[in-house]
Amino acid sequence: MIKGITSVAAIASDEGFDRLNSLFRALGFEEGKGWNDSSGRGAAFLAPVGNLELITGRAPAVPGLLVEVTQLDAVYAAVQGWLAAQSAENVSAAKLTEVAPTHWNSRLFTVDLAAGLQLGFWESENPLHNRPIAVEGDLSAAGKKFAIVVARWNAVITDRLLQGSLDALHRSGCAKDDVEIVRVPGAWEIPSAARTLAESKRFAGVITLGVLLRGETAHYEAIYTEVARGIGQSQQETGIPHGFGVLTCETLEQALDRAGLKAGNKGFEAAIAVIEMASIQGKLAGKN
Ligand code: DLZ
C-alpha cells in the first residue's frame, strides 16, 4: 500500500529556491508537478528511491537535504560544472566541499547554495546498499552512442515510435549528437541495417522500429519471423544490445494504441530496454 515518501523542505529564500531548482534540473532530476500562487512557490523533484530517516538523541551530521547517487565523482564534476556556469556572485556564495568518506561506509560532499541552504550528495560504498543481490543496469545513457533503425513503411506510426525512443534516450541523458537515426524502406530491411550499425562497434545499443500490419502485409508471418530472427541474430552475434520495437498488429488502430495513444509507446520501451542492457553489458564486462 505504501507508494513513496514525500519530504517537504522549506527553503528560506527565493534565491536559494531558484538555485536549488536550477541545480536539480541541471543534474537531470525528473520534475514533478510544482505550483506557484500568491502564497509562494513549490517545486517537486522525483527520485526512484525514497528514504525518510528519523533521528533522535543527537544532531544529524549531514545536511537535511541529501541526494543519494550512484556515481558520486561524476555528480561532483556536474555540480562543479553547474557552479562554474553561474554568475560570479553566486559562485562565490556557494561553497563546495571535497568528496570525503563518512563513518557510515559511504562518501559524501556538500554544497552551500545560499545562507542556511546546504545540500549533500552521497554514495554508499556498500555495493548491496539499497539494492537486491543482483547485477542491474542503470537507466543512464549519458556519454553513450545509440543508433535507431526506423522503417518508413507505416511512417505515421513509426514516426511516433521514433519520438518515443528519442524521448527515452534524451531523458536518460543521451546527447542529441550521440544518436544516429537510419531510415530504411520497410521492416524487411531493418535487420541488415541494424547489423551493419552493430558491427561498426560505434554504438552501445541499436533500437529497431517498424510496424507490420497483418491485414495489409502479404506473407505477414514469414516476414515477421524473418525480421525478428534477423534482429535477434544481429544482437547475439555482435553482442550489442538491440531493442525490439517492431510492432505486429492486426489493425492500424491497434498500432496507434501501441505508439503512444492508449497502450504506452513501444519505441520508448525499446529504447529504455537498450539503455538498461547497455549498462548491464558494461557492468558484466567490468567497465562500470
Ligand atoms: C511490402 C510491405 C508490406 C506489404 N507491408 C509492410 C508492412 O506492413 N510494414 C513494413 O514495415 N513493411 C512492409 N512492406 C515493405 C517491406 O518491409 C520491404 O520494405 C519491401 O518489401 C522491399 O523490400
TrEMBL record:
(2S)-2-hydroxy-3-oxobutyl phosphate binds at residues 216-217, 258. Pathway: Cofactor biosynthesis; riboflavin biosynthesis; riboflavin from 2-hydroxy-3-oxobutyl phosphate and 5-amino-6-(D-ribitylamino)uracil: step 1/2. InterPro entries: LS, LS/RS, LS/RS_sf. GO terms for biological process: riboflavin biosynthetic process. It catalyses: (2S)-2-hydroxy-3-oxobutyl phosphate + 5-amino-6-(D-ribitylamino)uracil = 6,7-dimethyl-8-(1-D-ribityl)lumazine + phosphate + 2 H2O + H(+). 5-amino-6-(D-ribitylamino)uracil binds at residues 153, 187-189, 211-213, 244. The active site is at residue 219. SUPFAM superfamilies: Lumazine synthase. Belongs to the DMRL synthase family. HAMAP family: Lumazine_synth (MF_00178). This is 6,7-dimethyl-8-ribityllumazine synthase.
